[in-house]
Write a structure and sequence with these properties.
This protein is an alpha/beta fold and about 475 residues long. The protein has 2 domains: about 5-65, no CATH class; about 70-470, Peroxisomal Thiolase, Chain A, domain 1 (3-Layer(aba) Sandwich), CATH 3.40.47.10. It contains 16 helices and 11 strands. It has helices spanning about 5-20, 20-35, 35-40, 45-65, 85-95, 100-115, 135-155, 185-190, 210-225, 250-255, 290-295, 315-335, 335-350, 380-390, 400-405, 415-425, and strands at about 70-75, 170-175, 200, 230-235, 260-265, 275-285, 295-300, 305-310, 370-375, 435-440, 445-450. The two termini are about 30 Å apart.
Length: about 475
């Protein structure tokens, strides 16, 4: 069983005290000196004043952390030649009768129709071969295409401020495919990054890895010298992962996942007023201690030896449970005092009336803390679950649904396609607050809060939405819940 919300709140308070231990000690020491006049009285006035000033400076220094900024970001924009409309999916499935039986084909098509994906989602060249090319060469080619396109995009936007030689730290995440040398080395080689660049390659974290990378970058930048720059690249490579068996739970990734990548540059300096967003906080929740959650997204072989990713039928419910625990830690950091008070009062009421009446806990209104919300476009069911759990309107989840429809589940990069949608629509203003939510294997739930410092300027390119923005938002068809 997970911890109750009030227990999580107490843990959060404890973390704040521990993380600011020296500041607490300094302030306590200063207060003690003011109270113990006999101690102060034995010291020369100048010395006493110097001690108090030093303690106050220490307190301020220990409490102050370097701000972290998202300087710029870019996304891979697939060309139309990579499109895979439903008719193409059906035709290709029928061209592989020795791999997939007719019943599995029909099941996969029903999944595709219910998925929330549109006719313009894209897959790599490898998927357009019959049978799909699952070779190492095909995977490398896909990786070079999506990663280099995203990194080229972000450097093109920052060329007057940041060049490849200015990058101090590199973080690349890709969950399933991890070649040797790793993708981090591939980026270093392509862009000729400095010999002393610190590089990290993350794998196996699924769709949550993009925001995990942001959290890692934040921790590095808090401790790094002022002006340090981190390049984060987030992707998922599909070519080698096409499942050719008939297990229904393992056919889901074939239907949902599409090619994509995002690159971002973060810094602990506002980069001469060029930074786009300020990072407010990052909260990660891992529920892997629960066996069902641990196996919710699981790579394994079927009974015929075909490797694939098995997605549990309880995926949406698991995501909802992880989000609930994540919010218990995230809420106190971002919600206004009025909302936190209502939550505390409902907890108190439930405790006082325990056994006598059923008391529903107050559901905080996160629209009081954020103007925009990006929910990982993992699938229609995941977006539905989060929308219902948080009490969000259709407008609140528009970016998530439209991203899923246009690009499919691009895994760890999806929330940045959603941010690009909001900015392309001109909906982001200076001072607006943004909440990114992602889910991934483990099971993981991550929340990242941003504040807009510099909105996209009118006339700037619309990134991955440049060729389709005018068609969105569109009315999505109603789907019968029964299979």
């Amino acid at each position: 069983m997970g911890s109750s919300p009030h227990v999580n709140f107490l843990k959060m308070v404890n973390r704040l005290v521990v993380n600011n231990f020296f500041a607490v000690v300094a302030v306590t020491g200063a207060a003690a000196m003011l109270i113990r006049r006999d101690i102060v009285g034995q010291m020369p006035p100048v010395h006493a004043l110097m001690v108090l000033l030093l303690m106050m400076i220490l307190a301020a220094k220990m409490r102050r952390r370097r701000e972290v900024y998202l300087v710029e970001y870019g996304c891979f924009g697939p060309k139309s030649c990579y499109r895979t409309p439903f008719a193409t999916c059906l035709e290709h499935a029928h061209l592989m009768p020795y791999l997939v039986d007719e019943e599995s084909v029909a099941f996969a098509m029903r999944l595709l129709e219910r998925s929330g994906l549109g006719e313009e989602t894209c897959v790599p060249d490898a998927y357009h071969y019959m049978p799909p090319d699952r070779s190492l060469r095909a995977s490398r080619e896909e990786a070079e295409l999506v990663i280099f396109s995203a990194v080229d995009d972000v450097f093109a936007k920052t060329t007057t401020v940041i060049k490849p030689c200015d990058i101090d730290v590199l973080i690349v995440n890709c969950s399933i495919f991890t070649p040797t040398p790793v993708f981090a080395d591939m980026v270093v080689n392509r862009y000729k990054l400095r010999d002393d660049v610190k590089s990290v390659n993350l794998s196996g974290m699924g769709c949550s890895a993009g925001l995990v990378s942001v959290g890692l970058a934040k921790n590095i930048l808090h401790a790094a010298p002022l002006g340090t720059r981190v390049l984060v690249v987030s992707t998922e490579i599909l070519s080698s992962q096409y499942y050719v068996g008939t297990e229904r739970a393992m056919l889901l990734p074939n239907c949902l996942f599409r090619m994509g990548a995002a690159a971002m540059i973060l810094s602990n300096s506002p980069e001469e007023d060029q930074a786009r967003f300020r990072l407010r906080c990052v909260v990660r929740t891992v529920t892997a201690a629960h066996d069902a959650d641990y196996r919710c997204v699981f790579q394994e072989e079927d009974d015929k030896g075909n490797t694939g990713i098995r997605l549990s039928k309880d995926l949406a419910t698991t995501a909802g449970y992880a989000l609930k625990n994540n919010i218990a830690a995230f809420g106190p950091l971002v919600l206004p005092a009025s909302e936190q008070l209502l939550v505390a009062l409902s907890l108190l009421k439930r405790k006082l009336l325990s056994g006598r009446a059923k008391v529903r806990l107050y559901r905080p209104n996160f629209r009081t803390a954020f103007e925009h919300i990006c929910i990982h476009a993992g699938g229609r069911g995941v977006i539905d679950e989060v929308q219902h759990g948080l009490g969000l309107s259709d407008d609140d989840v528009e970016a998530s649904r439209m991203t899923l429809h246009r690009f499919g589940n691009t895994s760890s990069s999806s929330v940045f396609y959603e941010l690009a949608y909001m900015e392309a629509k001109g909906r982001m203003s200076k001072g607006d607050r943004l909440w990114m939510i992602s889910f991934g294997a483990g099971f993981d739930c991550n929340s990242v809060a941003w504040e807009c410092v510099k909105p996209k300027q009118p006339g700037d390119a619309d990134g991955p939405w440049a060729d389709s923005l005018a068609r969105y938002p569109m009315q999505l068809p109603e789907i019968d819940k029964d299979m």
